[in-house]
Amino acid sequence: MTIRVPLLPRWLRWSFVVGIAGFIFYTSILAAPPSTAIDTLRFELIPLDKWRHFLAYGVLAGAILYAIVDWQLPIVRDASLVIGLAFLYGVGIEFGQSLIPNRYFSLGDAYANFLGTILVTPWYLVRRHVEFVEVRTWVAAFGFTTETQQK
Questions:
Q1: CA–CA distance from 97 to each of 26, 27, 80, 93, 113 (Å)?
Q2: Which tens digits make up the pLDDT trace of 60-101?
Q3: Is 60 exposed, middle or buried (0-12, 13-18, 19+ CB in 10 A)?
């Protein structure tokens, strides 16, 4: 069984990557979120800020994966590229934070970033069952057409 998924234009897919990376940069470097009472809560012994790192870098890795899905790379190279790019970005952000007063490089945050990036690994088990098609083709499969019919 193959599932058909719309493949957005390349520029839009990379816009998502840049937007997510920009959001992470802004919230990590430019405007660190203020500490709140909820930050001290622990979900299963893991602080909330680690969950934020985990989810943010999972989303970033997913966006990178979707951006390069049409590159036809071997699985190992594809996974290495996606996970490597997202993780290196996270390490770069951590180094950037170490240059800001009252901030520091956190090995715990780097681990959370890495664990978030590997959220994309199940994709490599199911990718042979997914077919990416142009948005027009995908929409047409539902009976909608973008062209007007003239008689």
A1: 11, 11, 25, 6, 14
A2: 999 999 999 999 999 999 999 999 999 999 999 999 988 888
A3: buried
